[in-house]
Amino acid sequence: MRFRPATPKDVGAIVRIYNEGIEERVATFETRPRSAKDVEGWFVSSYPTVVVEDDNRSVVAFATTSAYSSRECYASIAEFSVYTARKARNQGAGRTAMESLIKAAESSGFHKLVSRVFVENAPSRTLLRSMGFREVGVHARHAHLDGIWKDVVVVERLLGDSELRQE
Description:
Layout: E1 2-5, H1 11-24, H2 36-40, E2 49-53, E3 59-67, E4 77-84, H3 93-107, E5 112-118, H4 122-130, E6 134-145, E7 148-158, H5 160-165
Parallel strand pairs: 4-5
Antiparallel strand pairs: 1-2, 2-3, 3-4, 5-7, 6-7
């Protein structure tokens, strides 16, 4: 598997993988399938998105960043998401996506990545812990999904020089 920065040509593959995640209801509160138009906007920002290709050059995973907050004091913090196609799970694609996203975020000047993960999403939590993400705490009853309150674990990882100063 190899990674690279995502380009607008990857929109269809990203939409397909993201919609699998939405359909499964295990990794996002989103319920409306995304369209190419929804994802095209990712490429007009300074927030990195990366894709992972299999040996056939098919995109099998992606990781993306977005603004954590609109407040200027948080400009060096990015929120992230990572999704792997069903057919490529448990093969290292998610890890490869996150490794490349971390490098891209550092190169873009971010000092921290943050996200929220469903408490019951053990594969994602295990991956992130193994990559140096710290579980900060739980947001109880964070949002409804299909009429059920769900809790999320807040995760963070300091990057670059910030990582060296972490206690």
